Amino acid sequence: MQQTPRFITNTNGRQRLLWLAVTLLACLPVLFPLLHVNLWGTDRFFNEIRLVELARCLQDGVWWPRWMPDLAHGHGSPLPYYYPMALYYLAYPLFALGLDPRQALLLILGAAMALGSFSVFGLLRSRVGATAAALGAVLWFTAPYLQVNLQVRHAWTELLGLGVIPLFLWGVLDLAEGSRQLESWLRTVLGLALLLLTHNVIGLFGLGLAALAVVFAAVGENRKGRLRRLAAALGLGLGLSAFFWLPAFVDRGLVNVNQMSEGLYAFAQQGVYPSQLFGISFGRGASIPGPNDLMSLTPGLVHVLAFLTLLGAAFVRPRRLGRLSWSLFGLLVLLSVLMFPFAAPAFEWVPMLGHVQAPFRLLGPIGCLVAIAIPLVGSRVIPAKWRLPTGTLLAIASIGLLLPAFMNPRPMTPAEWSEYEPVRQEGFEGIPRLADPWTTTTVFREYQPQSVPHYPIEMSTALVEAPPWVRIDDSHKSALGVFAEGIAEQPSVLRVNVFDFPGFEANINGVPVAHKTDPATGFVLVPLATPGPWSMSLVRESTTLALGAGLLSLLSLLLAAVVLIRRIRALHAEKTHALPG
């Protein structure tokens, strides 16, 4: 097991609680925008619509939907098949208790930001002491990109993922350095599973961190033991979340994920220019091409200047830094370079990197790594008597630069707020009538099935349509599927105005029938082979791949429970043997 670095300052429990309290109190002003339910944002209602639609699916008895029936003007969307839904599951109990969807979501985001701050504090406290750990927590909390996601982009699932990254990094670093503690194992397993269930891009970055941790653990003494424990934890994290990511990854060719990085969101269009890294203003507009962006794309002026200063000091005294410090420096430089426009070809050349969509999204992981690197390196290169005043000055400066912008969030106008009125009044039944782009819940329609030739601009007049010789007495839909009945005078074809997607199975009078896809619309065509009364059901069934992925997650859950019970028993036995007498 790696020895505790000699520069760590020992602190007792009271001091640790004091510094943690100071950290949280210093960060409270930045949570002020969470009190504003009518926050303006470029993706104003995507999250609320998804939460309301998830609630509809849960009430219909579909506990993990892979299809949402009311999106895309009521034609349905496989959004949850490809887009992680952890934020909405966490907010659902609050929504079910009567809170407004936005209030429920904002409360979860506030908890996520507190979790991230606490995790940065915990990661650093065991390495550089409570004083420097408090600085790291404040630097993470005051990273401007967190507030960009909260106030401007409304990229709330990404913000939740950014709150989980420090927890995962805390666990994976401990295991890579030789920790045998149960807490480190739990943070790694749960952290990786949560990242993959929270946001695709943040989950991808988490996998990158996991790969680097494996390389880090492969160097030094007892590397076989470290690698074994680390691999086991990462494997369980992947297994627990496999029910989502495995079908989404394998079946990504069924939708238009390539549209996420085309046009306005082409990699070269969404790069960050070096001058923007030193910005101090907080823009509240959309991201546009070029250096004069309307959105703030800076890791934070205090963060950048402190990082560059410590980087220079590290090169003056390189022997004072350990492997972890130099690894963080190298990773930060790499991520920063990848954000610049000239690095756009790398997103097309490197497998999976293209799924980052916008290079400026790297600002989130950069903010976390900077918040860890500054206290870690500062404790090595700054003389002991200057560490407390320097850290205090950095904390005050980082909070002070953000307060003027964040204490005055931009509210929506009455006209903007009224766009959501159908859902506020009618719940999920109002979703199909929303104007675009809100009914799509994705701007680029990247999760639209490939079989859909064009996107409809309004909801269909009828759920099920048929020729005049077919009478439709009733038709309705739920999260389970579409159901209709009537009488046919002669054989015909029913057109169900729902986008076709693998997993739909049609039945006529209880007998399975082969359905087709309308090439002109992408809707489902169900044959009526015989005249007379008919009853049709078009239901979503789990594919073989989804069932296999779910079984893998279940087995991983059982294995994790077995490992956890064994570890708890072992710890209890150790404490029992340690008692006197």
Describe the protein's architecture and organization.
- The protein has 581 residues and is α+β, with helices and mostly antiparallel strands.
- The chain has helices at residues 13-27, 46-59, 71-74, 79-82, 86-96, 101-128, 130-141, 144-153, 156-176, 182-198, 200-217, 223-240, 242-250, 301-316, 323-339, 344-349, 363-381, 384-406, 414-418, 421-426, 544-578; strands at residues 464-465, 470-478, 481-488, 492-499, 504-508, 511-513, 516-517, 523-528, 532-540.
- The protein folds into two domains: 44-415, no CATH class; 464-540.
- It is 53% helix and 9% strand.
- The strands form two sheets. It has a five-stranded antiparallel beta sheet with strand order 2-3-9-5-6, with no helix packed on it. It has a four-stranded antiparallel beta sheet with strand order 1-4-8-7, with no helix packed on it.
- Helix 14 (301-316) packs antiparallel against helix 18 (384-406).
- It is globular and about 90 Å long.
- The two termini are 29 Å apart.
